[in-house]
Design a protein that fits this description.
Helix content is about 55%, strand content about 10%. The protein has helices spanning about 20-30, 40-65, 70-95, 100-105, 110-140, 150-180, 190-200, 215-240, 270-280, 295-305, 315-325, and strands spanning about 5, 15-20, 245, 250-255, 260-265, 285, 290-295. The chain has a 5-stranded antiparallel beta sheet.
């Protein structure tokens, strides 16, 4: 696909525009409207949306640590590329069968129109996924450490070490103060830190007569326990050999690489099944071509509530997992 680059000096990194099929856009307009197509309007619409995404990405970069900037750039390029693909496909779909207002009701190809509408629905689902990339840009670097991050355990262990060092530091300073009734000369503190703590202890809310009150140590200790539990959970999750299964009408895959439990139907599930999938945390991914959620014990338990995807043997997915593990099947 042909591309151009926007060299705007206001951007930290140039954005790559992908080619919009103007001819397809013109045919789509002619098939659905009596008004003339304005040359270049589809490209202009596409670039306007990409430029807004660029503004969002640059705002997010200013708010986050530089370690997240490459991920933001990747998401921005993914948005730009997939948006162009989606728009071009949409124009192609729209031009396949003219509107009844354009073609007239006589001998109107109803069956072809139904197929066109189904293709439009799929294209719209892809559009929604693409717009979701903007939310991923907004959230990059702002939350906790995602389980999807391949370095999640390493990052959590670093965070744990920092919290543990802070706990030991606070306890050592409190012990020095308890022994000397003063902070001056404390080997754990710089002169600047001594003065800052003296000011802090002079505040009216600081009533416990120690540099670091008990609630501060208690809160930090609770965070240490939480991080430890998260590390153990992730280790256990990555060591657990989840397995997929076949069901009547499709398959379920335990995609370890993507960290997703993915449901692949042989044909589009009906509205009732889609509602059950959504209510149990599964979301449609046009990119993966599957209904999916994060791969963990909760996903397996959620699958237990969706009888239409139970293994062909008739047992619940959680029971199937236990059976496979007990039999040593991989």
């Amino acid at each position: 696909m042909n591309t151009t680059v926007n060299p705007s000096s206001q951007m930290e990194a140039p954005v790559q525009y992908y080619r919009i099929n103007e001819e397809a856009a013109r045919h789509a307009k002619e098939a659905n409207s009596f008004s003339d197509y304005v040359p270049g309007s589809a490209t202009a619409e596409y670039r306007q949306m990409v430029d807004k995404a660029v503004e969002l990405a640059e705002r997010q970069k200013r708010r986050t640590d530089p370690e997240y900037h490459a991920k933001i750039d990747h998401l921005l390029d993914l948005y730009s590329r997939k948006l162009a693909q989606n728009m071009n496909e949409g124009y192609d779909i729209a031009a396949r069968v003219p509107s009844v207002l354009i073609a007239g009701p006589a001998n109107f190809p109803v069956r072809k129109k139904e197929k066109q509408n189904a293709a439009s629905d799929r294209n719209m689902m892809e559009w929604q996924y693409i717009q979701g990339l903007l939310d991923r840009i907004r959230s990059t670097g702002m939350g906790g450490i995602s389980a999807d991050d391949v370095d999640a355990i390493t990052k959590l262990e670093k965070k744990l070490t920092a919290r543990q060092k802070a706990q030991e530091h606070m306890k050592a300073v409190n012990a020095y103060y308890r022994k000397h009734n003063a902070l001056d000369g404390c080997p754990e503190l710089s002169p600047e830190e001594v003065e800052a703590l003296k000011i802090d202890m002079a505040q009216s809310w600081h009533m416990q007569g120690r540099p670091y009150p008990s609630w501060q140590l208690s809160n930090n200790n609770a965070e240490i326990r939480r991080i430890k539990a998260r590390i153990e959970q992730l280790k256990r999750q990555r060591e657990t050999g989840y397995v997929g299964w076949e069901f009547d009408g499709g398959t379920v895959e335990a995609n370890q690489e993507a960290n997703r439990l993915q449901i692949l139907f042989a044909s589009k599930p009906d509205e009732e099944i889609r509602a059950v999938l959504k209510s149990n945390g599964f979301r449609w991914s046009p990119k993966a071509g599957a209904w999916q959620r994060q791969l963990n014990d909760n996903a397996i338990r959620a699958a237990d509530y969706i009888k239409s995807i139970w293994p062909v043997g008739g047992e619940k997915p959680s029971e199937f997992q236990r059976k496979v593990k007990s039999e040593g099947i991989t």
